[in-house]
User: Fold this.
Amino acid sequence: DTWTRLLRRAGQPKQRKGRVFTYGVAGAKNTKARVRAVFTTRGRVGLITSTAKGHRASGVAIGAKASKLKGKTISYGKNIRARKLGKGAMFLFGVKKGRVAWIGVTSTSVAKTPARARSYLKLAGLK
Assistant:
């Protein structure tokens, strides 16, 4: 999606900073949780991340034990695990203190190399 389509679908973000849109998350347990969309230099969504409780990817929820990722994922850097999806996209999982702290989904272009994925995570404030 482009940033204009994202705005139509998700509404106005809480913050726009460079290539990153940040959205708040509803719920008493998610007062500090954020969903972020990071755009490629061509204006397409390259990465979407979430720190919200209740969000999950491949059956793994935020707050789950990191051991749930064993055997299903590969390392994509320190405390980052990745699971391939069809057509080159990936789910990314961030691990802190033995638990899943955030999840993300990347486009094919961002998932090409671990270094590229980590650069987008840095833009999202997660690396």
Summary: The beta strands are 15-17, 20-24, 34-39, 45-50, 56-57, 60-61, 74-75, 80-84, 90-96, 99-106. Helices lie at 3-10, 114-123.
